[in-house]
Structure formats: C-alpha cells, structure tokens
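Below is our example:

___
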Amino acid sequence: MVTCRYGTTLPNDSSCASPCTWATVDPSSFLIHGPTYLQNNQKVKATSTLMKLVGADWLSSNKREDDLGGQPGSIVQEYAAPGGRDFFFIVNIQVPVLTTYNLAFYYTMDTPLEIIPLLKRFVQGDDAYRNSRFKLIPYILKFLQL
C-alpha cells in the first residue's frame, strides 16, 4: 500500500501510473457553455485551457494555511523568480479537522491579466463576487483507498 507524504509537492505523472501524483487532462473531456448557450443551452467540448497547472501540494498543518503563494520555497516562489511568471491562481481546498489538510493547485498563464477582462474582474472582485462565479469541476481518474 502506498501512502502520500503530507507537506510535500506532488510530482507530475502524465501516465497516471503512480499514486499521489497529478496530471492534466485533455480539455475536450469537459463540456462548457458554447457561443450560443444563452439562446439554446448548448454546451461544446473545450478546446484549450486559459491557465496551465504547474504544480500541486498536499499539506497538513495545525492551523489554517491561506498564504501558500507567499511561503518561501513554494511553487509560486520558484516560478516567480526573476524573469518568471507574475500571475498565479491558487485553488486551496482546505479540510479543517484536528489537523487542517490542504490540497492546493497552482495555475499560471502566459497572457497578461489585462487582456482577459472577465478574469481581471474576477481577480479584483470581492469574495461575494468570486463565490457567485467560481465553479470547480474535479476530474478523478483513479481513487486509491489508503
């Protein structure tokens, strides 16, 4: 039986052969609102992603961990080194029990934020605005019971 080590960055395994790893999936496996969705409710296969997943962390802590991007040695700090990326979108799923568990996904993109007005409004909006618009669609290829 393989166990995941808490407090570590999960390795990328595009073959999905190893446990406790992450990989990206073909965007066409997701249906999204098409250009005429408001008229006919038709969804279409996605053809690309706006952001690139660059890493994932599996963490545990005795307190709530909110500033994962600001932690020394984090994935964000590595990618944001001089000449690196300057925009990151971090999805930090927290499970607060006796120990707080975090599953964090780190996304970045090549396009400047200003070129995508909808995303810029989302980033600059308040929590109520973001909560009314953010939709998480998980895709679990395999589930290994430990």
User: Anything to note?
Assistant: Strands lie at 8-10, 31-33, 43-45, 52-61, 88-96, 100-108. The first strand starts at residue 8 and ends at 10. The radius of gyration is 17 Å.
